[in-house]
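Cont'd.
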Amino acid sequence: MSTSLAEQDVALIDLVDRLLGGGVVIAGDITLAVADVDLVHVSLRALISSVAKLEEGGLE
Amino acid sequence: MRDKVLHAPPDIDLFATEQPRLENALSRRIGADPENVERGLAQLVLTIVELLRELMERQALRRIDAGGLSDQQVERLGTTFMELDKRMEQLRAEFGLNPEDLNIDLGPLGRLL
Amino acid sequence: MIELVAITHAAAPPPPARLRAIPVGGLLAVVAPATEEEATAESLWRREELVEELMADCDLLPVRYGTRFADDEDAAQAVAARHATLAAALDHVRGAVEVSVRVIGAEPRATHAALSELARDAVERPVQPPQVLRGAYLVDRDMVDAFAARVAQLQAAQPGSQILCTGPWPPYSFSDRP
Protein backbone atom coordinates (compact mmCIF):
# COMPACT_ATOMS: atom_id res chain seq x y z
CA MET A 1 0.00 0.00 0.00
CA SER A 2 1.30 3.41 -0.89
CA THR A 3 -0.18 5.20 2.10
CA SER A 4 1.82 5.40 5.30
CA LEU A 5 0.52 4.11 8.61
CA ALA A 6 -0.09 7.64 9.86
CA GLU A 7 -2.02 8.48 6.71
CA GLN A 8 -4.17 5.38 7.21
CA ASP A 9 -4.76 6.35 10.83
CA VAL A 10 -5.85 9.92 10.14
CA ALA A 11 -8.09 8.74 7.33
CA LEU A 12 -9.73 6.23 9.67
CA ILE A 13 -10.24 8.92 12.31
CA ASP A 14 -11.98 11.15 9.80
CA LEU A 15 -14.03 8.19 8.55
CA VAL A 16 -15.24 7.08 11.98
CA ASP A 17 -16.04 10.67 12.83
CA ARG A 18 -18.33 10.83 9.83
CA LEU A 19 -19.90 7.36 9.86
CA LEU A 20 -20.80 7.49 13.53
CA GLY A 21 -21.34 11.20 13.98
CA GLY A 22 -22.60 12.37 10.60
CA GLY A 23 -24.95 11.35 7.86
CA VAL A 24 -28.71 11.28 7.80
CA VAL A 25 -30.15 10.37 11.17
CA ILE A 26 -33.33 8.33 10.95
CA ALA A 27 -33.62 6.14 14.00
CA GLY A 28 -36.42 5.19 16.25
CA ASP A 29 -38.44 8.33 16.43
CA ILE A 30 -41.82 7.72 17.95
CA THR A 31 -44.24 10.47 17.17
CA LEU A 32 -47.62 10.54 18.79
CA ALA A 33 -49.47 13.27 17.05
CA VAL A 34 -53.08 12.37 16.57
CA ALA A 35 -54.55 15.19 14.53
CA ASP A 36 -56.61 17.37 16.85
CA VAL A 37 -55.96 15.38 19.97
CA ASP A 38 -52.55 16.68 20.96
CA LEU A 39 -50.92 14.38 23.48
CA VAL A 40 -47.15 14.18 23.63
CA HIS A 41 -44.37 14.22 21.05
CA VAL A 42 -41.77 11.68 22.03
CA SER A 43 -38.50 11.70 20.17
CA LEU A 44 -36.21 8.79 20.90
CA ARG A 45 -33.32 10.60 19.38
CA ALA A 46 -33.77 13.52 21.75
CA LEU A 47 -34.07 11.14 24.68
CA ILE A 48 -30.97 9.19 23.72
CA SER A 49 -28.89 12.31 23.28
CA SER A 50 -30.02 13.76 26.59
CA VAL A 51 -29.32 10.48 28.36
CA ALA A 52 -25.92 10.39 26.65
CA LYS A 53 -25.21 13.91 27.94
CA LEU A 54 -26.18 12.84 31.45
CA GLU A 55 -23.84 9.89 31.27
CA GLU A 56 -21.01 12.06 29.96
CA GLY A 57 -21.53 14.53 32.78
CA GLY A 58 -21.51 11.72 35.34
CA LEU A 59 -18.06 10.55 34.31
CA GLU A 60 -16.45 14.00 34.28
CA MET B 1 -10.09 4.41 -2.19
CA ARG B 2 -8.60 4.44 1.30
CA ASP B 3 -6.03 6.94 0.15
CA LYS B 4 -7.89 9.91 1.56
CA VAL B 5 -5.17 12.38 2.42
CA LEU B 6 -5.41 15.36 0.08
CA HIS B 7 -2.82 17.40 1.93
CA ALA B 8 -0.52 16.04 4.60
CA PRO B 9 1.06 18.46 7.08
CA PRO B 10 4.77 18.22 7.91
CA ASP B 11 4.03 16.29 11.11
CA ILE B 12 1.01 14.18 10.23
CA ASP B 13 1.55 12.09 13.36
CA LEU B 14 0.18 14.96 15.42
CA PHE B 15 -3.22 14.15 13.97
CA ALA B 16 -2.92 10.42 14.38
CA THR B 17 -2.77 10.60 18.14
CA GLU B 18 -6.54 10.62 18.49
CA GLN B 19 -6.83 6.90 18.89
CA PRO B 20 -8.70 5.54 15.91
CA ARG B 21 -9.74 2.45 17.82
CA LEU B 22 -13.48 2.16 17.52
CA GLU B 23 -14.01 1.17 21.13
CA ASN B 24 -12.61 4.51 22.15
CA ALA B 25 -14.54 6.40 19.50
CA LEU B 26 -17.78 4.93 20.73
CA SER B 27 -17.04 5.26 24.41
CA ARG B 28 -15.92 8.85 23.99
CA ARG B 29 -19.24 9.63 22.47
CA ILE B 30 -21.40 8.00 25.04
CA GLY B 31 -19.02 7.78 27.99
CA ALA B 32 -19.93 4.25 28.97
CA ASP B 33 -18.77 0.65 28.51
CA PRO B 34 -18.77 0.32 24.72
CA GLU B 35 -19.81 -3.31 24.67
CA ASN B 36 -23.06 -2.77 26.48
CA VAL B 37 -23.54 0.84 25.61
CA GLU B 38 -26.18 0.48 22.95
CA ARG B 39 -28.17 -2.13 24.76
CA GLY B 40 -28.01 -0.42 28.14
CA LEU B 41 -28.89 2.92 26.68
CA ALA B 42 -31.70 1.41 24.64
CA GLN B 43 -33.02 -0.29 27.75
CA LEU B 44 -33.09 2.98 29.63
CA VAL B 45 -34.62 4.94 26.81
CA LEU B 46 -37.24 2.37 25.92
CA THR B 47 -38.25 2.12 29.57
CA ILE B 48 -38.83 5.85 29.65
CA VAL B 49 -40.81 5.63 26.43
CA GLU B 50 -42.86 2.73 27.85
CA LEU B 51 -43.57 4.79 30.96
CA LEU B 52 -44.67 7.72 28.87
CA ARG B 53 -46.76 5.48 26.70
CA GLU B 54 -48.61 4.15 29.75
CA LEU B 55 -49.13 7.65 31.09
CA MET B 56 -50.43 8.80 27.74
CA GLU B 57 -52.77 5.85 27.46
CA ARG B 58 -54.21 6.62 30.90
CA GLN B 59 -54.52 10.28 29.96
CA ALA B 60 -56.27 9.37 26.73
CA LEU B 61 -58.66 7.04 28.53
CA ARG B 62 -59.48 9.79 31.02
CA ARG B 63 -60.31 12.14 28.18
CA ILE B 64 -62.40 9.53 26.46
CA ASP B 65 -64.31 8.92 29.69
CA ALA B 66 -64.76 12.63 30.26
CA GLY B 67 -66.41 12.83 26.86
CA GLY B 68 -65.95 15.60 24.31
CA LEU B 69 -64.02 13.55 21.76
CA SER B 70 -65.55 12.54 18.47
CA ASP B 71 -65.81 8.88 17.49
CA GLN B 72 -63.17 9.54 14.86
CA GLN B 73 -60.77 10.98 17.42
CA VAL B 74 -61.32 8.07 19.75
CA GLU B 75 -60.68 5.63 16.94
CA ARG B 76 -57.52 7.43 15.88
CA LEU B 77 -56.26 7.38 19.45
CA GLY B 78 -56.79 3.62 19.54
CA THR B 79 -54.94 3.13 16.27
CA THR B 80 -52.07 5.32 17.38
CA PHE B 81 -51.55 3.34 20.56
CA MET B 82 -51.70 0.11 18.61
CA GLU B 83 -49.04 1.41 16.24
CA LEU B 84 -46.91 2.62 19.13
CA ASP B 85 -47.20 -0.80 20.68
CA LYS B 86 -46.07 -2.43 17.44
CA ARG B 87 -43.19 0.01 17.11
CA MET B 88 -42.09 -0.65 20.70
CA GLU B 89 -42.10 -4.37 19.92
CA GLN B 90 -39.84 -3.81 16.91
CA LEU B 91 -37.47 -1.59 18.85
CA ARG B 92 -37.26 -4.09 21.70
CA ALA B 93 -36.55 -6.86 19.18
CA GLU B 94 -33.80 -4.77 17.57
CA PHE B 95 -32.02 -4.44 20.86
CA GLY B 96 -32.78 -7.94 22.09
CA LEU B 97 -34.91 -6.76 25.00
CA ASN B 98 -37.94 -8.48 26.54
CA PRO B 99 -40.85 -6.54 28.02
CA GLU B 100 -39.53 -7.54 31.49
CA ASP B 101 -36.16 -5.92 30.68
CA LEU B 102 -37.88 -2.57 30.63
CA ASN B 103 -39.08 -2.80 34.19
CA ILE B 104 -36.02 -1.36 35.91
CA ASP B 105 -35.55 -2.09 39.58
CA LEU B 106 -35.20 1.14 41.52
CA GLY B 107 -34.40 -0.58 44.81
CA PRO B 108 -36.36 0.98 47.70
CA LEU B 109 -38.59 2.75 45.19
CA GLY B 110 -39.69 -0.55 43.76
CA ARG B 111 -40.02 -1.32 40.08
CA LEU B 112 -40.39 1.45 37.56
CA LEU B 113 -43.42 0.14 35.69
CA MET C 1 -33.20 -6.83 8.83
CA ILE C 2 -31.92 -4.26 6.41
CA GLU C 3 -29.57 -1.38 6.84
CA LEU C 4 -30.30 2.00 5.24
CA VAL C 5 -27.08 3.15 3.67
CA ALA C 6 -27.83 6.17 1.50
CA ILE C 7 -30.57 8.34 0.01
CA THR C 8 -30.45 9.18 -3.69
CA HIS C 9 -32.67 10.75 -6.28
CA ALA C 10 -35.23 8.54 -8.04
CA ALA C 11 -33.53 9.19 -11.39
CA ALA C 12 -30.26 7.63 -10.21
CA PRO C 13 -28.86 4.57 -12.04
CA PRO C 14 -29.41 1.15 -10.44
CA PRO C 15 -27.10 0.64 -7.45
CA PRO C 16 -24.11 -1.74 -7.46
CA ALA C 17 -24.53 -5.35 -6.25
CA ARG C 18 -25.43 -5.96 -2.57
CA LEU C 19 -27.43 -2.73 -2.57
CA ARG C 20 -31.11 -2.37 -3.34
CA ALA C 21 -33.08 0.79 -4.03
CA ILE C 22 -36.55 1.31 -2.54
CA PRO C 23 -38.52 4.09 -4.24
CA VAL C 24 -39.98 6.66 -1.86
CA GLY C 25 -41.61 9.49 -3.78
CA GLY C 26 -38.92 11.26 -5.74
CA LEU C 27 -36.19 9.61 -3.69
CA LEU C 28 -34.56 6.21 -3.37
CA ALA C 29 -33.80 4.57 -0.04
CA VAL C 30 -30.69 2.53 -0.75
CA VAL C 31 -30.41 -0.48 1.53
CA ALA C 32 -28.11 -3.43 2.15
CA PRO C 33 -28.79 -6.63 4.07
CA ALA C 34 -27.98 -6.03 7.73
CA THR C 35 -25.01 -8.07 8.84
CA GLU C 36 -24.09 -9.27 12.28
CA GLU C 37 -20.46 -8.34 11.77
CA GLU C 38 -18.73 -6.19 14.32
CA ALA C 39 -17.78 -2.65 13.54
CA THR C 40 -14.06 -2.88 12.84
CA ALA C 41 -11.83 -0.59 10.80
CA GLU C 42 -12.03 -3.13 7.99
CA SER C 43 -15.83 -3.38 7.99
CA LEU C 44 -16.24 0.39 8.18
CA TRP C 45 -13.93 0.87 5.20
CA ARG C 46 -15.91 -1.72 3.27
CA ARG C 47 -19.13 0.12 4.07
CA GLU C 48 -17.50 3.39 3.01
CA GLU C 49 -16.30 1.88 -0.27
CA LEU C 50 -19.83 0.72 -1.02
CA VAL C 51 -21.20 4.22 -0.51
CA GLU C 52 -18.41 5.80 -2.54
CA GLU C 53 -19.01 3.35 -5.39
CA LEU C 54 -22.63 4.49 -5.38
CA MET C 55 -21.53 8.11 -5.21
CA ALA C 56 -19.36 7.71 -8.29
CA ASP C 57 -22.55 7.40 -10.33
CA CYS C 58 -24.91 9.78 -8.54
CA ASP C 59 -25.24 12.35 -5.80
CA LEU C 60 -26.37 10.98 -2.48
CA LEU C 61 -26.88 11.59 1.22
CA PRO C 62 -24.97 9.04 3.29
CA VAL C 63 -26.94 7.61 6.21
CA ARG C 64 -25.51 7.22 9.70
CA TYR C 65 -23.90 3.87 10.36
CA GLY C 66 -26.16 1.37 12.06
CA THR C 67 -29.50 2.66 10.83
CA ARG C 68 -31.57 -0.49 10.63
CA PHE C 69 -35.12 -1.44 9.86
CA ALA C 70 -37.14 -4.62 10.05
CA ASP C 71 -38.16 -4.48 6.40
CA ASP C 72 -38.53 -2.36 3.26
CA GLU C 73 -41.85 -0.96 4.42
CA ASP C 74 -40.43 0.37 7.67
CA ALA C 75 -37.48 1.92 5.89
CA ALA C 76 -39.71 3.50 3.27
CA GLN C 77 -42.01 4.88 5.96
CA ALA C 78 -39.13 6.47 7.86
CA VAL C 79 -37.75 8.05 4.71
CA ALA C 80 -41.18 9.24 3.60
CA ALA C 81 -41.64 10.98 6.94
CA ARG C 82 -38.52 13.08 6.29
CA HIS C 83 -39.05 13.40 2.53
CA ALA C 84 -39.05 17.18 2.28
CA THR C 85 -35.90 17.72 4.36
CA LEU C 86 -34.07 14.93 2.57
CA ALA C 87 -35.00 16.23 -0.87
CA ALA C 88 -33.78 19.68 0.11
CA ALA C 89 -30.51 18.30 1.49
CA LEU C 90 -29.96 16.23 -1.66
CA ASP C 91 -30.45 19.36 -3.71
CA HIS C 92 -27.96 21.20 -1.52
CA VAL C 93 -25.19 18.63 -2.06
CA ARG C 94 -25.78 18.03 -5.76
CA GLY C 95 -22.48 17.86 -7.62
CA ALA C 96 -20.43 18.31 -4.47
CA VAL C 97 -18.34 16.28 -2.05
CA GLU C 98 -17.12 16.78 1.49
CA VAL C 99 -13.57 17.70 2.39
CA SER C 100 -12.25 17.54 5.95
CA VAL C 101 -9.70 19.92 7.42
CA ARG C 102 -7.99 19.80 10.79
CA VAL C 103 -5.60 22.51 11.91
CA ILE C 104 -2.92 22.96 14.54
CA GLY C 105 -0.95 26.15 15.04
CA ALA C 106 -2.55 28.33 12.40
CA GLU C 107 -4.97 31.20 12.87
CA PRO C 108 -8.32 29.43 12.79
CA ARG C 109 -10.68 32.23 11.69
CA ALA C 110 -8.63 33.36 8.71
CA THR C 111 -7.92 29.79 7.70
CA HIS C 112 -11.60 28.86 7.86
CA ALA C 113 -12.57 31.97 5.90
CA ALA C 114 -9.99 31.32 3.20
CA LEU C 115 -11.21 27.76 2.78
CA SER C 116 -14.91 28.62 2.93
CA GLU C 117 -14.38 30.87 -0.09
CA LEU C 118 -13.85 27.78 -2.21
CA ALA C 119 -16.75 25.87 -0.71
CA ARG C 120 -20.47 25.85 -1.24
CA ASP C 121 -21.04 25.38 2.47
CA ALA C 122 -18.95 24.85 5.59
CA VAL C 123 -19.42 23.65 9.14
CA GLU C 124 -17.12 23.74 12.12
CA ARG C 125 -16.99 20.99 14.70
CA PRO C 126 -15.85 21.19 18.30
CA VAL C 127 -12.10 20.99 18.76
CA GLN C 128 -9.84 19.51 21.35
CA PRO C 129 -6.43 21.10 21.95
CA PRO C 130 -3.98 21.24 20.33
CA GLN C 131 -6.29 21.45 17.30
CA VAL C 132 -7.62 24.95 16.72
CA LEU C 133 -9.94 24.25 13.83
CA ARG C 134 -11.88 21.26 12.60
CA GLY C 135 -13.97 21.96 9.55
CA ALA C 136 -16.04 20.15 6.97
CA TYR C 137 -16.41 21.83 3.59
CA LEU C 138 -18.93 21.09 0.86
CA VAL C 139 -16.91 21.50 -2.32
CA ASP C 140 -17.93 21.16 -5.98
CA ARG C 141 -16.51 17.91 -7.34
CA ASP C 142 -14.31 19.74 -9.80
CA MET C 143 -13.02 22.18 -7.17
CA VAL C 144 -11.41 19.59 -4.92
CA ASP C 145 -7.96 19.99 -6.46
CA ALA C 146 -8.16 23.77 -6.15
CA PHE C 147 -9.23 23.33 -2.53
CA ALA C 148 -6.24 21.10 -1.77
CA ALA C 149 -3.98 23.64 -3.47
CA ARG C 150 -5.41 26.41 -1.26
CA VAL C 151 -4.68 24.27 1.80
CA ALA C 152 -1.08 23.89 0.66
CA GLN C 153 -0.86 27.68 0.15
CA LEU C 154 -2.23 28.41 3.63
CA GLN C 155 0.19 25.91 5.10
CA ALA C 156 3.14 27.52 3.33
CA ALA C 157 2.02 31.02 4.38
CA GLN C 158 1.94 30.07 8.06
CA PRO C 159 5.24 28.52 9.09
CA GLY C 160 4.91 26.17 12.04
CA SER C 161 1.30 25.41 11.27
CA GLN C 162 -0.03 21.95 10.51
CA ILE C 163 -3.00 21.62 8.19
CA LEU C 164 -4.40 18.19 7.40
CA CYS C 165 -6.89 17.80 4.60
CA THR C 166 -8.69 14.56 3.76
CA GLY C 167 -11.34 13.67 1.22
CA PRO C 168 -13.28 13.50 -0.92
CA TRP C 169 -15.94 12.09 1.34
CA PRO C 170 -19.67 11.64 0.83
CA PRO C 171 -21.40 14.70 2.33
CA TYR C 172 -21.84 13.34 5.88
CA SER C 173 -21.74 16.73 7.53
CA PHE C 174 -24.31 18.24 5.20
CA SER C 175 -26.93 15.50 5.13
CA ASP C 176 -28.87 16.16 8.25
CA ARG C 177 -29.28 19.87 8.53
CA PRO C 178 -32.50 21.00 10.21
